[in-house]
Each structure stands twice: as structure tokens, then as C-alpha cells.
Amino acid sequence: MNQTLYKSINEENIEILVRSFYSEVLKDTTLAPFFIAILGEDIQNEKWEEHLLLLTEFWKFVALGYDEYKGNPLQPHLLIDGLSRDAFTCWLTLFHHTLDRLYTPSTGVYFKQKSTDIAENFMRKLSL
Fold first, then answer.
1. What are the tens digits of pLDDT across the range 24-56?
2. Domains (ranges, CATH) in the chain?
């Protein structure tokens, strides 16, 4: 299948990115248990929908400067038992693979750098 890759970042493809990524997270043996424990197995449920909307707003804030995101992205991670450097590495790898599927390399590099910076900051603050 020959898919057209996004050449720019906008609201619509950020939502596609978030939904595509978390669909893959639920298939990942390392990451899925963290999310299932909090949000459940069904990505269609209300908790997941709320999470996906929140993360869409977060990435719109990061990438486009939108100010709809009102959360504290580190806070929920402070409450998750068993988080490790390996889990963050797995998250980044999966996120970067999703970016490679959706964006041209020159566009995806922005998200790759931002996600790496955020993950490194989280790991430092979580002492991982």
C-alpha cells in the first residue's frame, strides 16, 4: 500500500498521530499493561477518549503553540508503579515508528526531537 505522508503538521494529522500511536500502544507487551491498568482495554471507552483528546491537545500545544492544553504532563507519570527507562525507550521507539508511517522524514524529525526531549526530561524528573 502506497500511503501519502504528511508534509506539514496540523490539527487533523496530530489527531491521527495520537490515535494511531495509542492503537499501537495497546498491542505492545511492554506498554499496554500501564495503559490498560488505568484506562482499560477498549480504546473506544470514555476514559480512553478523554485521554486521546488530552494528548491531542498536548501535541497541538507542543507543535503548533495552541493553548487548549491545560494539563501537567509529568504529574500522571508520578503515580504509575513500575515505570522504567526501558518503558520510556519502548514508548519513544513506537512513537518514532508511528511518525515514520505518517510524516515525511523532514516533518517527522520535529516530533522525534520534541518527544525525545520530553521523555529525557520525564526520566530525569522521575530519577530513571
1. 999 999 999 999 999 999 999 999 999 999 999
2. 11-125 (1.10.490.10)
